[in-house]
Write a structure and sequence with these properties.
six-stranded mixed beta sheet, Endonuclease/exonuclease/phosphatase family metal-dependent hydrolase, exonuclease, 264 residues, GPI-anchor_lipid_remodeler, globular, signal
């Protein structure tokens, strides 16, 4: 019994010591339809991809919920996040940015374990489509918690994107846990919007020195999808753009972060 108890303790402490790395994916899924073959569902491909890679948290953009567009693709109006959650075993959340096609359109979050899900609407001073950010308080195997936000910023107006960046990162500073923010930001690294983000927030691709396109093709496109983390709380372990995944007009962006110890 004593040996068994000590063995359990060893496994517990070993697991806690090695469970602080956080796998993250952000992916603009083109509302679950293959842009190269319109009418074809990509939900099963997305489910297989997530099951294979096992991220702790996922931010999805361009998510439909109970729209007529989803009915044309799937044969019925579909709650996409609920369906992908059932297919993968992840907890799921849909953050509605706007009403669309008799349903909703916005952000999707998946988490292995999460709570305090909520959606915040983002400012649109220049008009255009409503935008939002969805939030979850995710919990790791170590019982450590962090906030994860998924968003999709305005594709039309710089003024909107600047206001949205300010709103998101100002809110993040009020949270009582470490924060990671991911999504399709619709601006490039040389943009004014990018430069407005406070310096202690690091963007995983820039830290990794990886300038690979995240939208379009590997050869022609843009780098507009990002994973941002508070460098006071996290450090980057790995980053890549998954150009082998071709069932959207964006590529999934992957990062592994390590939560820093309090004294670091």
């Amino acid at each position: 019994m004593d040996k068994f108890f000590l063995s359990c303790l060893f496994c517990l402490f070993f697991g806690l010591a090695n469970a602080q790395e956080i796998k993250i994916i952000t992916f603009n899924i083109y509302h679950g339809e293959n842009p190269a073959k319109l009418g074809d569902s990509t939900l099963h491909l997305l489910a297989d991809f997530l099951i294979l890679n096992q991220p702790e948290v996922v931010a999805l953009q361009e998510v439909d919920s109970m729209t007529l567009r989803s009915e044309k693709i799937y044969g019925k109006k579909l709650n996409f996040m609920s369906k992908i959650g059932r297919e993968t075993g992840y907890k799921n959340y849909f953050g509605k940015a706007m009403a669309f096609d008799e349903g909703g359109y916005g952000e999707g979050l998946l988490a292995k374990k999460g709570s305090a899900y909520h959606t915040l609407q983002l400012p649109n001073p220049a008009g255009g489509e409503p935008r939002s950010i969805a939030w979850v308080k995710a919990e790791l195997k170590t019982l450590q918690e962090f906030y994860f936000g998924g968003t999709h910023l305005c594709h039309e107006f710089t003024e909107n994107r600047i206001a949205q960046v300010d709103s998101i990162f100002s809110y993040a500073e009020t949270l009582d846990k470490p924060v990671v923010i991911a999504g399709d930001f619709n601006f490039s690294p040389d943009s004014l919007e990018y430069s407005k983000i406070p310096s202690h927030w690091k963007e995983a691709g820039a830290v990794a020195g990886n300038s690979q396109n995240t939208y379009g093709t590997a050869e022609e496109g843009a780098r507009i999808d990002y994973i941002w983390y508070d460098s006071r709380k996290f450090e980057l372990v790995e980053y890549r753009v998954m150009t082998e995944i071709t069932f959207s007009d964006h590529f999934p962006v992957w990062a592994i972060l390590r939560m820093k110890k309090p004294e670091e």
